[in-house]
Amino acid sequence: MTPSPADEALSGSAPVRSEQDIVLSRQLVRKLTQQLKFSLVDQTKMITAASELSRNTLVYGGGGEMRWEIVSNGAKTGLQLAFEDKGPGIPDLEQALTDGWTSGGGLGMGLSGSRRLVNDFDIRTAPGEGTCVTITRWK
After folding, report:
1. Count of domains for the chain
2. Are residues 101 and 56 in contact, defined by beta-carbon separation less than 8 angstroms?
3. Could you tell me which residues come within 8 angstroms of residue 13 by beta carbon, excluding any fewer than 6 positions away?
4. Which of 10, 82, 128, 135 is deepest in the core (most CB within 10 A)?
5. Window from 20-34, 64-78, 80-94, 103-117 with minimum mean pLDDT
6. CA-to-CA distance for 30 and 72, rounded, in angstroms?
7. Residue 7 covered by a domain
């Protein structure tokens, strides 16, 4: 018997410490968005944002954790993801959120691109204290 979404946990976490963990985080987010019956477009947006933020957690934060929670706000249900690391933090957050800016060899779409793909975006960072990016997509 296949468990229904009601049988699934409403929250959990997964490590982000390797390339394989990035793949696993995408698979988990796909499963959760399917259970929540997100449209294919909304599934893709959330999976893409999760992939970008998982990669940032690994590459720039030295690894960390993805926490997930099924949340509700009145009649709306959503999926909230938090990507947290204990890395060096982001010294210039405004610059880091600028389209096209990159501190590495990427396309500069990680943070700014992820922000555009979700309904709610919050980032907490301080030099030497790591970074936590929380995103929510509502159904």
Report:
1. 1
2. no
3. 65, 66, 67, 68
4. 135
5. 103-117
6. 19
7. no
